Amino acid sequence: MPWEGTPELPVGVAQLENQVAGHTAAQGCLGLLKTSNNDGTILKPTGKVLCGIREIAFYERLKDAQEKPIQHNVDAVDATTASFELLNRIVPRYYGHPKLAIGGKEMEFIQLEDLTHGFEQPCIMDVKIGRRTWDPLATPEKRKAEESKYKACRQRFGLCIPGFQVFSHRCGGQLIRHGKDYGKKLTEVNIRDGKKSGLNGVGEV
């Protein structure tokens, strides 16, 4: 969600400094938030109403799957239910969708497990999987805009790298961060260098 200037945040939350992609505070957006009591969760703004409704429904379905494990002795297991069980193994844990007053407006958030919690120098890479990055309800304008992003890598490899950060011990623990401008320059020729840079950083921590 775009903002003019830095929004006034309520007591108890702050900007998440480890966000490497998506709508960030540096771009004039609200960005991801964290709780000041360092409880190991992050708050993701839901953004557009319909997108927020659908995303919350997805996480609620995941939560149901966590609380009601599949009975593997049944003869037939619904394929969708089985897929949600698999997703639960790799998706951050969901803690609901609280509302906060931000800049005089009530906003809804998705509260998720912070996978970097406990790490002093987290190395993070945002990888977007898939050749198609829009949903079936997207407008023609939205589809055209999405098709033009990271085109070379998406069409060749079915993925793109919107951003990453590494703490390079070879450079004295210096933080190296690359955003979407770097990712858009990656092609099928140099994308391996981008992945190697990020993974090398992980190996150095």
From TrEMBL:
InterPro entries according to UniProt: IPK (IPR005522), IPK_sf (IPR038286)
Pfam family, one: IPK
Entry GO CC: cytoplasm; nucleus
Catalytic activity: 1D-myo-inositol 1,3,4,6-tetrakisphosphate + ATP = 1D-myo-inositol 1,3,4,5,6-pentakisphosphate + ADP + H(+); 1D-myo-inositol 1,4,5-trisphosphate + 2 ATP = 1D-myo-inositol 1,3,4,5,6-pentakisphosphate + 2 ADP + 2 H(+)
Any one Gene Ontology molecular-function term assigned to this protein's record: inositol tetrakisphosphate kinase activity
Sorted UniProt keywords: ATP-binding, Kinase, Nucleotide-binding, Transferase
GO BP: inositol phosphate biosynthetic process
Main enzyme class: transferase
EC nos: 2.7.-.-
Family of the protein in this entry: Belongs to the inositol phosphokinase (IPK) family.
PANTHER family: INOSITOL POLYPHOSPHATE KINASE (PTHR12400), INOSITOL POLYPHOSPHATE MULTIKINASE (PTHR12400:SF51)
Name of the protein in question: Kinase
Organism taxonomic ancestry: Eukaryota, Metazoa, Ecdysozoa, Arthropoda, Hexapoda
